[in-house]
Write the structure tokens for this entry.
Amino acid sequence: MKELNSRQKALAWPYPRHRHFQAELRKATTAWFAERHFPTLRKLPYILAHRDKWPANIIVSEVAD
């Protein structure tokens, strides 16, 4: 069996690239906050507007407690 070169290995990698993962994560977080009407930063809607509201960032309430 022929060894794959680095380009072929990169194309065969089963996991998303970090930038794609990060984009999907930001999209999901933006939607999460919007559905719950949490205030976010205007330019970064995936970040809560106020740090003291961080428990709202936690999906499982037991973690925030």
